[in-house]
Design brief:
Layout: E1 2-11, E2 14-20, E3 25-29, H1 36-48, H2 61-64, E4 75-82, E5 85-92, E6 99-104, E7 109-110, H3 114-121, H4 127-134, E8 135-136, H5 145-161, H6 168-185, H7 190-305, H8 309-350, H9 356-365, H10 368-472, E9 479-482, E10 488-491, E11 496-498, H11 504-522, E12 530-533, H12 541-553, E13 559-563, H13 567-573
Parallel strand pairs: 3-13, 8-12, 12-13
Antiparallel strand pairs: 1-2, 1-4, 4-5, 5-6, 6-7, 9-10, 10-11
Helix pairs in contact: 5-10, 6-10, 7-8, 7-9, 7-10, 10-11, 12-13
């Protein structure tokens, strides 16, 4: 891969700035603040994009390289050549107008989708591997753990599949994911849950059986209560008949006595009327006798006295006396008649139809048999009411019990379904366990192979690094060891020296060797460009010369050196 041209349309301090690159070593010289790091960052942004960080951050690359002018644009173009084809990337970083285009200039076509096609063209180059291998920013010569992971993945893929594009780590991850999914299908507490369901079934069935037993007893009690209620109703009907019969008997008796008394009163009335008539006759006869006596006395006195006056006065006197006696006798007769009439009226009143029912009731209240029947009826009525209340209570309890029974039956159905489901699961457990065991065995085998591969690959990597370090340091350090944990040592004839015990310049030279060796291993069939941004500040002249010479003779790819020193130019021209 060779970078051909970078066009910074609107990026940082640059506007419509073009930078042309050539094969081999390119030295981009400029004093401080001239934009060398801006060009370096632009290339990375064109390859992988620049995302705006959330919140405010001092390391927000998006904000740092926003255009100083023309805020409406934040974009550029990058042309590069890969496998004989020239490509152009057009990218806008602007948040409100973000886009990326990939053009095949050789064939004159747009490649869509751009991001996916760009990844394929870069041959597996990721931002992590770019930062840890081919690109060194100012004061960032050291690599991070990402490089080691990239190398391990590369070694595993290449050694196990003979194809570095097949990711063994992804395969392992896929197997682990499959194992996790299988483990989810296995209930770790399957037996415990099964026993728990059986216990719930037993308890619920026992409760249901007890409820049904209580229901049967309740229904039996309801039936008995209903029978008792019917008996009480029958008894009530009999008592009502007896009361009616007793009332009829007493009514008939009283009515008979009434009729007999009326008959007797009628006979007495007839006799009284006869006596009255006779008295009337007697009164009239007395009055006539008195009149005749007066006449006789008048005649007697007239014959004796021979005068009219005295006899007449005597007759008048006698008549008056007789009349008065007749009147007094008449009043006495009238009084007797009134008494007889009152007696007749009283008799009639006592047996009148209006007062007879009340009279009958008064007689019934005094009848002991009738009162006993009433008391018995009240007792039966109370018992009947209690029976009805008891039946209603039984009925209400039975309704609640039936509702609970339905719930228990539904719960038993659910538990039976859960039990059946668990039984099916239990039959699958053995098969699933075998699959998990097979996956575990595959993962273990891959990890064992990876360990062996890492050891053998580590030797190859150490040899490549050592070769580069030996040339840079004039064989002061001939062998570098990177252990599996990532620790770096310099192996001398006398002892193994940890990297932190050597000078800063030597440390940066070792990390440069690591990056170059990694590039050789990761992209051996398509050498990637190397971008070095002021990385030689701690190099002495000899080691700088050795490094430039090594890049000229040993490195087949393009090298972009960004520097504010002219000695790199002088050394490269020698």
């Amino acid at each position: 891969m060779i970078f051909l041209e970078a066009e910074l349309t609107h990026f940082g301090k640059f506007h419509n700035k073009k930078v042309v690159f050539h094969p081999g070593i390119n030295i981009i010289y400029g004093e401080n603040e001239m934009g060398k790091s801006t060009i370096h960052t632009f290339i990375k942004g064109m390859l992988f994009g620049i995302e705006r960080a959330r919140g405010r951050s001092k390391n927000d690359i998006y904000t740092k390289y926003e255009p100083w002018e023309n805020q409406g644009g934040y974009e550029g173009k990058l042309r590069f050549k890969q496998n004989g084809i020239i490509y152009r990337i057009e990218r806008s970083f602007l948040k409100t107008n973000k886009y990326v285009r990939l053009i095949d200039e050789t064939n004159g076509t747009y490649l869509e989708p751009a991001e996916e096609n760009l990844k394929k063209i870069l041959g597996g180059l990721t931002e992590t591997s770019y930062v840890n291998t081919m690109s060194i920013e100012q004061m960032k010569a050291t690599t991070d753990s990402g490089l080691l992971e990239e190398l391990r993945a590369y070694a595993s893929n290449l050694s196990t599949t003979k194809n570095k594009s097949i990711n063994v780590a992804s395969a392992k991850e896929c197997l682990k994911k499959q194992k996790k999914e299988l483990e989810r299908t296995i209930e770790k507490e399957l037996d415990t849950e099964y026993v728990k369901i059986l216990e719930q079934l037993e308890v619920t069935s026992s409760q249901l059986e007890q409820l049904k037993k209580e229901s049967n007893e309740c229904q039996k009690a309801m039936k008995e209560t209903k029978e008792k209620e019917q008996l009480a109703i029958n008894q009530m009907e009999q008592i009502e008949k007896q009361l009616g019969k007793r009332e009829e008997d007493i009514t008939y008796k009283l009515f008979s006595e009434k009729m007999e008394k009326e008959k007797q009163n009628n006979s007495e009335n007839k006799k009284s009327m006869k006596e009255k008539k006779e008295k009337k006759k007697t009164g009239i006869g007395g009055f006539l006798v008195c009149a005749i006596g007066c006449i006789a006395i008048y005649l007697l006195l007239y014959n004796i006295l021979r005068t009219i006056f005295i006899p007449a006065i005597s007759g008048v006197i006698l008549f008056i006396v007789g009349f008065i006696l007749w009147i007094i006798n008449g009043k006495k007769r009238n009084k007797e008649d009134i008494q007889v009439q009152d007696s007749e009226d009283g008799t009639k009143q006592s047996i009148s139809s209006q007062e007879f029912p009340q009279y009958v009731k008064s007689q019934l209240l005094g009848d002991s048999m009738y009162q006993q029947l009433l008391e018995k009826r009240n007792q039966v009525m109370n018992y009947l009411q209690q029976t009805k209340n008891g039946y209603e209570q039984f009925l209400e309890e039975e309704k609640k019990r039936q509702w609970i029974i339905e719930g228990k039956e539904d719960r038993i159905v659910e538990l039976e379904e859960e039990k059946e489901e668990l039984e099916k699961k239990k039959t699958q457990v053995a098969k699933t366990q075998k699959e998990i065991e097979a996956i575990n065995l595959a993962i273990e085998t891959m990890e064992e192979v990876e360990t062996e591969i890492h050891q053998s690959f580590g030797n190859v990597l150490n040899e490549k690094i050592s070769e580069i370090v030996s040339q840079i340091t004039n064989k002061a350090y001939n062998y570098v060891v990177i252990k599996q944990g990532g620790e770096i040592f310099l192996n001398t004839e006398k002892r193994l020296i940890p990297i932190h015990q050597v000078s800063r310049g030597t440390i940066e030279q070792i990390y440069l060797a690591i990056r170059l060796a990694a590039c050789n291993l990761l992209w051996e069939h398509g050498q990637m460009p190397i971008l070095l941004d002021d990385v030689f500040a701690y190099y002495d002249d000899i080691r700088l010369k050795n490094t430039i010479e090594m890049l000229k003779t040993k490195w087949n790819g393009q090298v972009l050196i960004f520097t504010c020193h002219k000695r790199e130019i002088a050394v490269s021209e020698c």
